[in-house]
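Hi Q.,

Before the meeting this afternoon, I wanted you to have the zinc ion prediction in hand. No need to reply - just skim if you have a minute. The sequence and ligand are here:
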Amino acid sequence: MTDIPAAARQAVLQARHLVVFTGAGVSAESGVHTFRDALTGLWARFDPMQLATPEAFRRDPALVWGWYEWRRQLLLGVEPNPAHRVIAALEQRLPRVTLITQNVDDLHERAGSRKVLHLHGSIFTPRCFDCEHPYKFEGAPAMAAEQPLEPPRCSSCNGRVRPGVVWFGEALPEGALTAAFSAAEDCDCLLSIGTSGLVQPAAQIPEVAAQAGATVIHVNPEAVAVHSANQYSLQGPAGRILPLLLADD
Ligand code: BJW
Ligand code: ZN
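Predicted structure with the ligand bound:
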């Protein structure tokens, strides 16, 4: 019934400390765009250097803000999928789970995961570009499509409000980054789900866990190269593979 190797399933279900490390692929079956999938990824249609850098925001704040508001609108219309729900269930079942995500959506939280380390920030926590004062959204954006939109102004300094995400060239939030790397060093099993593993420094997290002796299990429709007996590549969509971990018991 299951195509998951018994040893991989056992490593997850008997973990002392499980790290779950997610990327855009975990939300793909909810209808959220990934970045680098060849036809459907955001970077196939949009240039990251024009949209996901501080320089891009300085150059054309309305272009960048409008694009993120379009994405926030899409996120408000989707739901967690079985992969998010299995991850939340693992947190209930195992003695210790650390959930680390590169995603800027809130689908893990909406599936019931209580503590999520957001390495690349959140689209739902904007702040002032100049003074970092937080900004509170009032309602959903009203966007017909991705289109330029002037960002709101900061109530403290009148600077422009920016999305609460981590752009290329920016430092990751220090607390989340430190907690993520120390969990990777401590865990005995790491599940890496739906990430291309191309963006640094997050991409080092599975490697750190592997070097510390943890079992590392990749879940991805694309085969992931593995280099030792306690690494696994479970090939398939996360919404199909992850429920198999909890099936039959
Ligand atoms: C499925 C599926 C299904 C599909 N089920 N799976 C060399 C060393 C170190 C750094 C660098 C370096 N060269 C360049 C850098 C810098 C840069 C970087 O890594 N660039 C690389 C691209 C080369 N890194 C940075 O700039 C970072 N900051 C930094 O380094 O700061 C240094 C610093 C220190 C101190 C002070 C100042 C500076 C910041 C990186 C920020 C990344 N930001 C983004 C955008 C966030 C905002 C937004 O959402 O718009 O984060 S980029 C984008 O990529 C997003 C993602 O979180 C991130 C990772 O992507 P992810 O999640 O892996 O998605 P995809 O699309 O790549 O992959 C999806 C996968 O899912 C695929 O494998 C599919 O097969 C799979 N899949 N369906 C399961 N159903
Ligand atoms: Zn401000």
